[in-house]
């Protein structure tokens, strides 16, 4: 893992009329968020019209949820070192952007970036654990 990240890889801030900043997430930035989540072990598999959301931690695979992805990403925003903070943009702007405009959307980009085929054993384990 890098010791710092480029803020512009995830969000862009524009000054708005009220002397504050408004965060915006382009399609490329949105994909970067999902790729970051994938690097954290999160994945999605479609099995028999069922969407399985999981997280790999080492050799282990566990059920996960979109909520756990959001919490993990929020923790990242709260703790990571970002190049690009400063010049009026601070961590509060970043956290406000997260809450004002939830950056995780269950759309085609979300599915394509996080999609992973599970082995038969992994699929069975996920279904048994989620049941």
Walkthrough of the structure:
With 131 residues, the chain is of the alpha+beta class. The chain has one domain (5-130). It is 42% helix and 23% strand. It has five helices and seven strands; from the N terminus they run βββαβββαβααα. The strands form three sheets. Strands 4-5-6 form a three-stranded antiparallel sheet. The radius of gyration is 17 Å and the shape is elongated.
Any chance you could write out the topology, listing elements then pairs?
Blueprint: E1 5-6, E2 12-15, E3 21-24, H1 27-39, E4 42-47, E5 50-57, E6 60-63, H2 66-79, E7 82-83, H3 91-100, H4 108-114, H5 120-130
Parallel strand pairs: 1-7
Antiparallel strand pairs: 2-3, 4-5, 5-6
Helix pairs in contact: 1-4
